[in-house]
Design the sequence.
């Protein structure tokens, strides 16, 4: 029973740790499917986290916090768009730039506004998103097997967790069942076809980036307003890059993205849980090994040893009308 | 078409436009300073005085510049071969491991002038090795080098943490770092050069690596523009198909370019490790690899430009430290913003102001612009 | 003349310093097929792209159906009933036919009803015009002819009354082209107006009612097709009488220099592009390979020059075998006396960002003449480049100038000078005069014949049948990756056309 409880706990933290990855990964999916490489996920998440926690603390409202997180994150996405769509700059370079601007400005502004060494004030109840207990969760708790699964895994998360998982089928539906999705996929494969069909390539890509900004904003809000009761400097700690890795791992498909993020979340949860305690058979696994595993797995995938990841064909190339 | 724009005179292309881009980056940074309630002009004065006002400041500025020359050259060499090496950070970190092994083994027995060459080789070799795997995967398996080098930065960080809290940590110590090196692994300072000009220096870490960096800048120039290998790298960088046609092996040129890039990145570690800290500690690279991207872009991938850009960033780092002291609202992280803005305006938005400049030039002297424009549009 | 479907008045368009269209006037009558001819770079595509809203004119007026129209985007053009079939198809390769057809013309925000509507509409168009295609097929799995049909259907689905086709037969076999022309005639009978852009005069004579000729960005003449001749049009196109045949003596074929036996080449998708091809080229002769683009000629050249690995086959160069299936690379072949002028000079034969002198050693940069140890011998390279500039009359004659700033003809001369001056035993040339001005064509043809007369083996691949017929001592025709016939230089165009269409090949197979 102890093993069972331990597994439930690891799975529970797997879900919690997967959520920011999943949101950022789906965010990246919108922009990369539209033909814009986005290594700026990290930075957009970070400004989202900062804006969310700051606004929530100042206005005493979780919803205002979430709104600000989305707003600022979208603004950064638009800067990325301005450079890489309007001015046809290198998408990777502008992504790197965004990550730096985000890292520096969150610390500078945080320190200037709150004077707590780059932290934002600790969020009070009402300023953060609380866990939602599903009906009957308490009653179910003592039922063996199903009880803990219902109580711990399904119930008791914040609204943003359910939002993240709901975004998986929604993203699939948007991409494959709507006009916007058809055009978005087309612009990532052959922007000239979209242009000659009378659709503005730039506006379409901007809209894709707005979707990206919204989702990275929510991801950031989750970090600072759910997982942690406030903003701490550099709190994304590479999650944007792991999300990027997960996106490649998922071959740019929404449902795969969920599984990739759950896998990477699980590795993280397991690393925390084990903390150097020995495993049966394998023995002691260093924490650093577990931490590096998502990156190693992605490199192995990229090397083509487990299937081939083919990115959208027009990805990374600014659209220039044919001469 | 290779360039959608007509030609500008070289001085405008290599001088005026980078200058405008840089100015815009600083103006935007000025707004951030305003936003935190400080006077940007006063901040600028403090920054420049902090960097160049006193001998010690100059020495620190050049010390930081040394680091950035290495990482800037590293990014540039790869970029000439159209490889975006974001892995400079990790390659420098692993380069530090090579140095640690040499220094820890020999610092009690050999003098610095024997250890230094060994450390250079070790740092270069370890950095090159860390660049080799992403290069091999790009060349042989088509794995996107931007993504693999990012992944390798994280893997490098994990490896180094594992070693620095484990095998490399002296018994009984709590700090995640190697023991301090003995005198044999300390590099001579160069502060006397600045003192020749009459300035006083209290203590500054400017060391012989600065000269090494300048030598490497010259060698990179020689490599890129005057050797067969450089010619092949540039050919591949402009057109992989033309390189194939010319009988240049894709695998060989990618791997060679990335190993040279990795070696330069690895050599960066010499400066802080042997010139200043005298140990290898967790996160000693602290973003210098990423600064290399900004430096290379700003220097337009040319060694002379890179040296100048590195000195500018050295100034920002040193002046930024002074600034943080004078204006508590502004920490050194201001540099990170400036760095991001420079990458944005000198890199991604490089061409934003070009059309305006061209219009301006055209209105002064129509002859200088467009006469050599590309012929043969339409079809 | 019937009422004008389209009228263009005083259209001007520049790209930087290049004036692609100057003061163009054009009228196209409703229900006719109007041809626009001109050499590559004459400004035809630019003009039509302006009409389709892809580019904006710098000045000028457009009238559609007698009313002034302002066309700012392709959307405006589509709304006015203008459709365009581009030279490079504007299709999303991994979408289905239906998805491509509805893209940009969806009825509402969800796809379900759009797809249902498109399915029934497509059915109607198929019946009305005989344009059959499987609506659920994925584009990249369709042959080129069918992909083009999807492009036409796309335009018709959007209610196009005016259809612009840009070089539609470039990728088609003669049989497919004939089929296309039948479709176009049928569309005309249904009252559609068609504008056909081409540089092939034969097509103009075969199908159009009226024809306009463009030269260097200007509209030089408009004629009723029945009242003009190929000769007159050709003269109008180039501005002076065309050199149809290069002067050349009898070939004195010597020993076999290049021998290809059972060569098979696959492309990156694993599709067989060159299928068991065998032929010889002797010293002192020019062998021309004719064929519609995409029938394996490009892959054949790439394999022989070592750029692309062959799957199997035996090749000998000067009597000595060479392994093209993985070991040989272009550098080694070059060392053994094989020079190659590639089809694509912009991305393969030259590095456009390089200075002229740097390109004049591309591929020979490991030659001792140009090196001092590991270093480039800059003085030697420069002297060498100047010599070639002189000898091949490359203009402007500045070896420090960026290669992108040379015209197409001069760029081609840079490549030819480099390859010919190495004194190779075998020279292979892909599309020797593509995108090259008339003056340079003559120069290049004479040079190739001079190479032949020096006893070199020359292999020329070109999609221009006239060029092949005028240069070659022997003509091989490729179809679907095979050599389907060999003819002498006096073979008629019709005879070669049938071979290029694979007619005999298919009969033989049955």
Sequence:
């Amino acid at each position: 029973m102890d093993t069972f409880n331990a597994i439930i706990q690891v799975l529970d933290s797997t879900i919690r740790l997967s959520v920011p990855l999943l949101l950022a990964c789906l965010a990246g999916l919108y922009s990369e499917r539209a033909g814009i490489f986005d290594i700026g996920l990290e930075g957009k998440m970070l400004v989202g986290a900062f804006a969310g926690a700051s606004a929530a603390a100042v206005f005493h409202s979780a919803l205002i916090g979430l709104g600000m997180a989305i707003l600022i994150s979208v603004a950064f996405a638009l800067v990325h768009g301005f450079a890489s769509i309007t001015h046809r700059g290198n998408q990777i370079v502008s992504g790197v730039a965004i990550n730096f601007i985000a890292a520096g400005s969150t610390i500078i502004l945080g320190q200037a506004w709150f004077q707590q060494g780059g932290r934002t004030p600790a969020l009070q109840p009402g300023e953060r998103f609380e866990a939602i207990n599903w009906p009957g969760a308490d009653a179910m708790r003592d039922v063996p097997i199903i009880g803990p699964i219902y109580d711990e895994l399904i119930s008791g998360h914040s609204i943003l967790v359910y939002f993240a998982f709901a975004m998986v089928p929604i993203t699939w539906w948007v991409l494959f069942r709507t006009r916007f999705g058809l055009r978005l996929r087309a612009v990532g494969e052959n922007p000239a076809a979209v242009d000659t069909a009378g659709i503005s390539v730039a506006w379409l890509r901007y809209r894709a980036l707005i979707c990206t900004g919204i989702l990275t904003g929510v991801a950031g809000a989750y970090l600072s307003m759910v997982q942690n009761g406030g903003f701490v400097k550099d709190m994304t700690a590479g999650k944007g890059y792991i999300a990027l890795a997960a996106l490649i791992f998922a071959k740019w498909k929404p449902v795969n993205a969920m599984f990739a993020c759950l896998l990477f979340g699980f590795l993280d949860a397991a690393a925390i849980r084990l903390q150097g305690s020995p495993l049966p058979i394998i023995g002691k696994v260093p924490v650093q090994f577990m931490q590096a595993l998502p990156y190693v797995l992605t490199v192995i995938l990229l090397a083509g040893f487990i299937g081939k990841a083919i990115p959208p064909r027009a990805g990374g190339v600014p659209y220039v009308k044919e001469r | 078409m290779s360039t959608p724009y007509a030609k500008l005179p070289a001085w405008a292309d290599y001088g005026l436009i980078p200058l405008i881009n840089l100015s815009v980056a600083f103006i935007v940074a000025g707004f951030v300073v305003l936003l935190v309630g400080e006077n940007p002009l006063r901040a600028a004065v403090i920054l420049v005085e902090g960097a160049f006002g006193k001998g010690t400041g100059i020495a620190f500025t050049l010390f930081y510049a040394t680091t950035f020359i290495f990482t800037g050259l590293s990014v540039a060499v790869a970029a000439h071969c159209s490889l975006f090496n974001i892995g400079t950070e990790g390659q420098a970190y692993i380069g530090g491991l090579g140095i640690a092994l040499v220094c820890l083994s020999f610092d009690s027995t050999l003098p610095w002038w024997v250890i230094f060459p060994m450390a250079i080789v070790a740092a270069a070799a370890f950095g090159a090795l860390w660049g080799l795997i992403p290069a091999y995967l790009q060349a042989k398996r088509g794995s996107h080098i931007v993504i693999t080098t990012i992944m390798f930065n994280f893997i490098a960080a994990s490896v180094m943490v594992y070693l620095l809290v484990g095998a490399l940590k002296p018994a009984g110590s709590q700090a995640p770092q190697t023991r301090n090196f003995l005198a044999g692994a300390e590099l001579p300072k160069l502060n006397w050069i600045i003192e020749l000009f009459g300035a006083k220096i209290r203590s500054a870490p400017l060391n012989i690596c600065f000269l090494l960096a300048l030598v490497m800048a010259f060698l990179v120039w020689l490599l890129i523009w005057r050797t067969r290998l450089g010619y092949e790298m540039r050919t591949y960088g402009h057109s992989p198909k033309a390189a194939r046609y010319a009988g240049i092996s894709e695998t060989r040129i990618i791997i060679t370019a990335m190993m040279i890039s990795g070696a330069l990145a690895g050599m960066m570690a010499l400066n802080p490790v042997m010139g200043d800290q005298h140990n290898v500690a967790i996160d000693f690279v602290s973003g210098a690899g990423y600064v290399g991207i900004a430096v290379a872009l700003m220097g337009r991938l040319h060694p002379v430009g890179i040296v100048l850009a590195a000195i500018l960033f050295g100034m920002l780092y040193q002046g930024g430290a002074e600034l943080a002291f004078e204006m508590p609202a502004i920490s050194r992280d201001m540099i990170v913003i400036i760095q991001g803005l420079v990458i944005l305006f000198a890199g991604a938005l490089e061409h934003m102001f070009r059309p305006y400049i061209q219009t301006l030039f055209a209105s002064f002297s129509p002859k200088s612009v467009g006469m050599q424009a590309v012929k043969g549009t339409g079809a | 003349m019937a009422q004008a479907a389209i009228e263009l008045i005083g259209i001007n368009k520049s790209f930087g310093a290049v004036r692609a269209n100057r003061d163009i006037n054009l009228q196209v009558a409703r229900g006719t097929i109007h041809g626009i001819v001109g050499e590559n770079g004459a400004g035809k595509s630019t003009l039509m792209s302006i009409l389709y809203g892809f580019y904006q004119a710098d000045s000028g007026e457009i009238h559609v159906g007698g009313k002034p129209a302002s066309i700012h985007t392709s959307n405006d053009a589509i709304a006015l009933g203008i459709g365009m079939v581009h030279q490079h198809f504007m299709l999303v390769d991994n979408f289905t036919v239906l998805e491509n057809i509805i893209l940009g013309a969806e009825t509402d925000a969800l796809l379900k009803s759009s797809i249902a509507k498109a399915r029934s509409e497509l059915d109607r168009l198929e019946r009305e015009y005989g344009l059959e295609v499987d609506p659920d097929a994925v584009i990249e799995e369709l042959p080129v002819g069918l992909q083009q049909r999807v492009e036409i259907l796309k335009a018709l689905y959007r209610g196009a009354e005016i259809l612009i086709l840009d070089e539609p037969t470039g990728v088609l076999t003669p049989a497919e082209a004939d089929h296309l022309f039948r479709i176009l005639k049928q569309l005309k009978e249904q009252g559609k107006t068609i504008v056909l852009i081409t540089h092939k005069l034969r097509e103009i004579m075969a199908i159009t009612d009226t024809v306009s000729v463009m030269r260097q960005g200007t509209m030089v003449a408009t004629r009723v097709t029945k009242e003009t001749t190929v000769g007159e049009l050709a003269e109008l196109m180039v501005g002076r009488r065309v050199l149809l045949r290069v002067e050349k003596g009898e070939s004195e074929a010597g020993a076999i220099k290049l021998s290809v036996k059972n060569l098979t080449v696959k492309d990156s998708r694993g599709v067989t592009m060159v299928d068991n091809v065998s032929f010889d080229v002797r010293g002192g002769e020019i062998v021309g390979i004719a064929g519609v683009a995409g029938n394996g000629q490009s892959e054949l050249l790439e394999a022989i020059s070592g750029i692309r690995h062959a799957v199997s086959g035996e090749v000998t160069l000067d009597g000595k075998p060479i392994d093209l299936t993985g070991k040989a690379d272009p550098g080694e072949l070059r060392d053994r006396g094989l020079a190659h002028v590639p089809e694509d000079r912009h991305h393969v034969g030259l590095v456009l960002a390089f200075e002229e002198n740097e390109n004049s050693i591309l591929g020979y940069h490991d030659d001792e003449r140009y090196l001092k140890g590991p270093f480039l011998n800059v003085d030697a390279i420069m002297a060498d480049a100047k010599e070639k500039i002189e000898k091949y009359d490359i203009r402007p004659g500045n070896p420090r100038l960026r290669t992108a700033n040379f015209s197409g003809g001069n760029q081609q001369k840079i490549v030819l000078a480099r390859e010919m001056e190495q004194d190779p035993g075998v020279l292979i040339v892909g599309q020797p005069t593509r995108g090259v001005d008339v003056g340079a064509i003559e120069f290049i043809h004479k040079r190739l014949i001079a190479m032949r007369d020096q006893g070199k083996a020359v292999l020329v691949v070109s999609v221009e049948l006239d060029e092949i017929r005028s240069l070659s001592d022997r003509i091989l025709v490729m179809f679907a990756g095979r050599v389907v016939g060999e003819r002498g230089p006096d073979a008629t165009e019709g005879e070669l056309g049938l071979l290029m269409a694979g007619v005999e090949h298919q009969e033989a197979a049955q």
Observations:
- Confidence is low (pLDDT under 50) at residues 505-510 of chain C.
- The radius of gyration of chain C is 25 Å.
- The longest strand of chain C covers residues 4-15.
- The CA atoms of residues 31 and 189 of chain C lie 7 Å apart.
